[in-house]
Design goal:
Number of strands of chain A: 0
Low-confidence stretches of chain A: 1-17
CATH superfamily of the domain at 70-208 in chain A: Tetracycline Repressor, domain 2
CATH topology of the domain at 70-208 in chain A: Tetracycline Repressor, domain 2
Order of helices and strands of chain A: HHHHHHHHH
Shape of chain A: elongated
Mean pLDDT of chain A: 90
Oligomer: homotetramer
Helix content of chain A: 55-70%
Number of helices of chain A: 9
CATH architecture of the domain at 70-208 in chain A: Orthogonal Bundle
Structural class of chain A: mainly alpha
DNA sequence: AATGAATGAGCCTTCATTCAT
DNA sequence: TATGAATGAAGGCTCATTCAT
C-alpha cells in the first residue's frame, strides 16, 4: 500500500456543501463496487480500474469522488462505522439494563457483518494491513466504539450489576475481541452458519463466565 | 501480495537431511531481519533488498533460503507457531486444573507477543492481509491452537469446573479473540505497558464473567 | 526469451473494430522504433524502455499496444510477412511464365530486405533465436511463402518449362535458402552493395544451374 | 546474451601447452553437455548450472574450462567447424571433378547435421542470435567454408565444366544457403526423414538448374 | 582441480494517477 | 462531469560469475 494520506473525505466539489443527489448515489455505487471487488480479490490484487468497471464508470471518474485507492478503503470503513455508531446509539436509547445493552451491541455488530459478507471480509481482513492504517482506525471510530462498550460496563458496575473489581477498559477489549474473532472465524470458515445467532452466546459467556 | 505458494521450506542442503549449522544460522538471521523490517515498514513497503541488507547478505542470497518474499512471511508464522505450540504443550504437561491451564496458555500467548514487539506486529498486522493467507493459517496451526483451548474448556466441563451449557468451540474463539485483541491493542497503543500482565485479568474475566 | 504467447494483437480499441487512426499510427511508430532498436542492439540487449524512448512514448505505453516485449518481435514479423505476401500475390497476378514469376518473387524478397537494413537484420538475425519461435514462424507465413514458391515450380513442371524429375518442395527450399543466404550475407558484410541486384543472378543460377 | 568477448579459447591452464588427457575429456564432456542442453532448452533458457549438471560437474568447474557461457557456444561452433573443415579437406583430396567435389561437400555437410540433431539445432538456431555473433563467425570458419565452395566452383569454370558467366562468390552463397535451409527445415519439421539423402538432390539442382 | 554458496547487476511489467478532451 | 489514453516509478527475481575452501 502506498503512502496513505487519511485526509478529508473528498466529495465531488462543484458546490462544497450541496452535493447533488446523483453525485451521492454515484459515490455510493463506487464504494459498494469497491467493497465487492476488494472482498473478492483482496485490496492489493484489486485495481482501481476493476472497481471502476464494477461501478460502471471510467477509471478516471473514481478520482472525482475519492482522492486515492486507499481512500476507498478508508471510506468504506468510515461510512460503515458512522452508520453502525448511529444505529447503535439509536438502538440503545431506551435500554437501561447493562446486560441488555451489551446484548444489543453484540447483536448489531454481528448482524451487520453477517448481513454482508463482502463488507465483513473488507472489515475483518482487508482493513488490517498496516500499523499506520490500524492506528488511524483505532484512534477514531474504533476508540469510540470501544468507549461505548467500556461505558456500558462501567455503568453496569455503578449499578451493581457488574463486579467492581474488573477493569472496564480491559473488559471492553475482551468483548470486542470476542466479537471480532467471531466475525473473522465466520469469514474464514467454509461452513455457512448464522453469525448473528452467536451474539447472545458471546454476551452470556462474557457476563457469566465459563465457570459453574 | 502475489500468488502464495506455501510450499516446503527450501533450505540449501548439502545433503537433504543434514543442513549445515551456518546454513541454519543464516536462514534464521534472514528470518529475524525480515521480522524487523516487515514490522517497521510493513510487508508491502519492505523490499527484499531491505531484508537482505538488514541480514547482512546480498539480495540474491535471500532466494537461496526462501522461495519468495511471501515465503518469508509464511516462514515467520510457521516458525513462531511451531515454537509456541511446543512450548505450550510442554508448559501444560503437568497442569491438571482447567483454569490453570487456560491461565498458562494466556500467559504464554501474551508473553511471547509482549517479548518481541516486532514479531507481535508481524503477527497481529502484517500476517492478516488476504483471505487466502488467513485461510491457510486458520486451517493449520491456528486450528490446532483453537483446538487446544477448546479441549481444555471441554475437559473443564467434564470435570465439572465449567458450565455444561456453553459451546466449547465458541468459548475457545471468545478467549482467543480476547487475547488477540489484547495483543493488537498493545501494538497500536502509544502507551507502553506490560502485555503479559493482562493474561490473568483476561482469564479471570473469561472464567468468572463480568457479572457480580 | 520468455514464454512466448503468440496470441492476438492487442490493439487499444474504442470499439472493437474501429481502431482510431492515431492509435494505429502510434502502434506503427512503436513497431518501427522496435525494429530500429532491435536491429542496432539486438533483441536481448534492447530494453523495452529503449524502444519506448525511440518511439517517443513512455515505457508503459508500449504495453497498451503490445502484450510483451516478445510480441514486439512477433508483430514485426507478422506485419512484414502480411505485407510481403500481399505485395507478392499482387505482383504475380498477371505473370504467367514460371521463370518470370520466380524472378519477381526473388526481386521482391531481396528488394524488401535491401530497402530497410534494420528490418533485414531483425528478419535475418533477431528472429531466429529459438526453436519454438522458428517453429511458430515456419508453420504460418513461412510455410505459405515456401508454398508459393513450390507451386510456381510445380506449375513450371506442368507447363514443361521445368524438369519433371525434381522435387518441387526441395527446389523451393533451395531457392528460398539461396535468397535467405543472400540477405544474411548482405547484413553481415561490411561492404555495401545492392542486394536487390542479386535477385536475377540467383534465379538464373536456380533455373539454369552452374553447369555449362 | 551479455557482452560477448569472442576471445581465445581458455584451456585449463596449469601448464599452458601440455593439457592432460582427462582435462581434454572433461572439456569435451562439458561441450557435449552444453550442446544437448542448449538444443533442448535454447541458449537463453539454459543456465550454466544446467550444463554443469548435465556434464556431471559443479557450476564453478565450467569456468575452469570456459571463460563464459558465450564461450560454450563459440567453442561448439569452433570445434565442429574445425572438425568439419578437416574432414572436408581430407575427403576432397583425391577428388578432381568439380561436381563430385560439390557433391562430397554437400554430403558431409548434411550428414554431419543429420547425424546429431542437437548439434544441428545449435548450429541452425542457437548460433544465430546477434549480428556480432554472426559477424564473428562469418569472418572465420564460415568465410573459409564459403571460400572452399567458391574455389571449387571457380576451378569448375576453369575446367570448363561450369559456365564462365556466373559469379562464383554468389554461386557459393547459393549452394551454402540451399544446404543451410535444408538443415534448418529438417530441424523445424515434425517429420523425420534423412537429411543426408537430400545432398545429391540439392547438388543436382545446383548444377543443372530446374530448367528442362 | 573442484566445489557450490554467495554475489548483485539488471529488467520487464504493473498500475495508481493525471490530464487533455 | 466524465472519459480513458498516457505516464513512469518501482521492485521481485534470475543467474552468470566469483572465490573461499
Amino acid at each position: 500500500m502506498n503512502e496513505r494520506s487519511f485526509s478529508e473525505a473528498p466529495v465531488p466539489a462543484t458546490t462544497r456543501r450541496t452535493v447533488s443527489r446523483p453525485a451521492i448515489e454515484k459515490r455510493d455505487a463506487i464504494l459498494q463496487a469497491a467493497t465487492r471487488v476488494f472482498a473478492r480479490r483482496g485490496y492489493f490484487q484489486s485495481q482501481v480500474a476493476d472497481v471502476a468497471r464494477a461501478a460502471g464508470v471510467a477509471a478516471g471518474t473514481v478520482y472525482l469522488y475519492f482522492r486515492s485507492k486507499d481512500e476507498l478503503l478508508v471510506s468504506i470503513f468510515e461510512r460503515t462505522m458512522r452508520d453502525a455508531m448511529a444505529e447503535g446509539r439509536a438502538a440503545l436509547t431506551h435500554v437501561a439494563s447493562p446486560v441488555e445493552r451489551l446484548r444489543r451491541i453484540a447483536q448489531l455488530h454481528l448482524a451487520r457483518m453477517g448481513r454482508d459478507r463482502d463488507l465483513a471480509i473488507v472489515f475483518q481482513v482487508e482493513l488490517r494491513q498496516s500499523t499506520k492504517f490500524m492506528e488511524r482506525f483505532s484512534s477514531s471510530y474504533l476508540r469510540e466504539y470501544l468507549g461505548l462498550i467500556r461505558d456500558t460496563i462501567a455503568s453496569g458496575q455503578t449499578a451493581g450489576t457488574f463486579r467492581g473489581d474488573i477493569n472496564p477498559t480491559i473488559a471492553a477489549k475482551v468483548l470486542f475481541g470476542a466479537l471480532d474473532e467471531m466475525a473473522t472465524n465466520w469469514i474464514i470458515s467454509r461452513r455457512r452458519y448464522s453469525l448473528a445467532a452467536q451474539a447472545n452466546l458471546v454476551v452470556d459467556l462474557f457476563v457469566n463466565g465459563v465457570a459453574r
